[in-house]
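dumping this here so i dont lose it
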């Protein structure tokens, strides 16, 4: 059973990658066969050239034989150019399609899966590993299609001329095959290790940008640089080991070739000296044998490359086989009545501690609900379940009576807008960032949303206005400006349900005032769930939930909770001091 499974896996990983390009690959194969035939014909002509022209002095053949040789070389060169272009362009196309496939797959992975691996490893799989997969077509298959038919044709010529000389010449072939197989296994192991190191380097580079402020305030540039140098040195050692193994295999082929040629010269020379064969026979056989060893060398090299590709393919398929988010099939076009947490409990691991415990709650349409509680109370998990970033471990979450696990994900998420403390802006224009959730919005609609979010005035003062490019995560804007761009994005999306995750907690008083006004406009006539930090949001809520240890321990209005909840009272006064 294990062998069958491995065979199926091989078919899925390798043949499955090449299958979309069969047409181009087969056309290239035809050109390679013609090229191989031309190589065999060139080897075949060595005998008449030597025997007829140089031995028998038939100089009349000089009129047409050089022309034939020239045409054969031109034919072989043309065919090699065509099939090489076709195979290499197919390899580039494979990389393009594979990167698109992996990126689209990445976009549909659940949050829980994305948290299992670093961003560096994901980037490495999509960029570096796919680039190696290009070699499957542009290197391995190209070499096999070119060299295997050439070896077959040249062997036929060599055996036809003198089978005994040919067998003697190939005495080193088993050694070459064994060396290639040993090197390939070593190379696959070393390549897998090297690619893991490349992923670590990618992660270092990513962190140098996204974590720049933390690195600088910690005065830890040298520490980070030292770690990067150490990992780079590890990668250097791994790569040089790979080169060492490859070059050793080439050396074995060269030595074996030298032994084979020496045997042919000694044995064949004696046959010529005793009149058993002609000089043309010897040099035709010798030429074919010498021409055979270069394709053998190329195939040995490609065999090692193939195992490198296999190592990369293992990592690519690790990402491909990650299960996508599961969407239901029930349409959910609108939100009419209520959001229901029906005895919801959640934990992030099967054996982990519960983060939410038996949440039984109904949020009515148009209601503003604030959530307060100490750090670790489960507030973020509470709101993360609503857009189905995670599914509850127990119980059910429902909108208008529909279990969210049964509704279409895109319908659910179109109903929800999110503004959080950690604003995510993309490396694109401000216009594109505002329209991210509504790509068909007009310029007028984008500007209206920006005005409602109090963002228009600072946007038009930027060098290119709405077409100003934002750096990574929008770090060339202030915190308040980023928040207002995010609010404009939510206003333009116009969702009936709004989640505010401590949206003003990190702002100064002036920025908070503008952002708060924008949020009030955004919250108008919407069902809003607020993870509360600032008092203004808490006071204006229709209902406040107090959470502790994953449970709702109290709920009511601001005035009611001040009277009956000691935890709320403590939180209230701690917020007041801020």
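and the seq i came up w/
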């Amino acid at each position: 059973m294990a062998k069958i499974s491995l065979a199926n896996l091989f078919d899925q990983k390798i043949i499955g990658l090449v299958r979309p390009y069969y047409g181009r690959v087969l056309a290239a194969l035809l050109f390679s066969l013609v090229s191989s035939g031309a190589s065999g014909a060139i080897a075949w002509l060595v005998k008449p050239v030597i025997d007829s022209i140089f031995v028998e002095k038939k100089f009349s053949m000089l009129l047409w034989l050089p022309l034939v040789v020239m045409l054969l070389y031109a034919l072989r060169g043309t065919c090699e150019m065509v099939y090489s272009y076709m195979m290499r362009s197919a390899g580039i196309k494979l990389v393009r399609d594979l990167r698109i496939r992996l990126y689209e797959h990445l976009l549909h992975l659940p949050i829980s899966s994305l948290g299992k691996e670093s961003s560096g490893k994901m980037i490495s799989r999509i960029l570096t590993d796919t680039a190696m997969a290009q070699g499957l077509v542009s290197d391995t298959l190209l070499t096999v299609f070119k060299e295997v038919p050439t070896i077959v044709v040249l062997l036929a010529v060599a055996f036809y001329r003198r089978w005994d000389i040919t067998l003697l010449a190939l005495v080193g072939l088993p050694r070459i095959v064994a060396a290639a197989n040993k090197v390939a296994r070593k190379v696959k192991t070393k390549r897998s290790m090297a690619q893991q190191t490349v992923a670590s380097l990618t992660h270092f580079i990513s962190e140098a940008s996204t974590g720049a402020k933390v690195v600088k305030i910690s005065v830890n540039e040298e520490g980070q640089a030292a770690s990067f140098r150490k990992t780079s040195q590890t990668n250097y050692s791994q790569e040089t080991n790979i080169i060492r193994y490859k070059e050793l295999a080439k050396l074995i082929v060269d030595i074996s070739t030298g032994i084979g040629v020496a045997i042919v010269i000694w044995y064949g020379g004696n046959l010529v000296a005793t009149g058993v064969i002609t000089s043309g026979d010897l040099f035709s056989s010798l030429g074919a044998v010498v021409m055979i060893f270069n394709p053998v060398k190329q195939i040995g090299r490609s065999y090692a490359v193939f195992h490198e590709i296999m190592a990369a393919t293992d990592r690519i398929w690790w990402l491909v086989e990650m299960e996508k988010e599961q969407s239901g099939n029930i349409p959910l076009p609108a939100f009419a009545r209520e959001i229901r947490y029906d005895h919801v409990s959640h934990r992030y691991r099967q054996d982990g501690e519960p983060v939410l415990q038996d949440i039984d709650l109904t949020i009515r349409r148009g209601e503003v609900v604030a959530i307060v509680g100490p750090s670790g109370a489960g507030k973020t998990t509470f709101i993360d379940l609503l857009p189905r970033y995670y599914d509850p471990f127990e119980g059910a979450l429902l909108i208008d009576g529909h279990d969210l696990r049964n509704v279409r994900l895109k319908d659910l998420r179109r109903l929800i807008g999110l503004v959080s403390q950690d604003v995510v802006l993309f490396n694109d224009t401000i216009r594109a960032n505002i329209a991210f959730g509504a790509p068909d919005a007009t310029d007028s609609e984008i500007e209206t949303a920006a005005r409602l979010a109090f963002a228009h005035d600072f946007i038009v003062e930027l060098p290119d206005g709405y077409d100003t490019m934002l750096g990574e995560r929008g770090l060339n804007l202030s915190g308040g400006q980023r928040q207002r761009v995010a609010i404009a994005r939510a206003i333009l999306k116009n969702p009936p349900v709004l989640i505010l995750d401590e949206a003003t907690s990190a702002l100064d008083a002036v920025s908070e005032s503008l952002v708060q006004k924008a949020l009030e406009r955004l919250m108008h006539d919407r069902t809003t769930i607020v993870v509360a930090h600032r008092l203004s949001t808490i006071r204006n809520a229709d209902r406040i939930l107090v959470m502790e240890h994953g449970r709702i321990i109290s709920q009511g209005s601001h005035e009611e909770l001040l009277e009956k909840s000691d935890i709320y009272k403590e939180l209230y006064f701690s917020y007041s001091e801020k």
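Confidence is low (pLDDT under 50) at residues 1-11.
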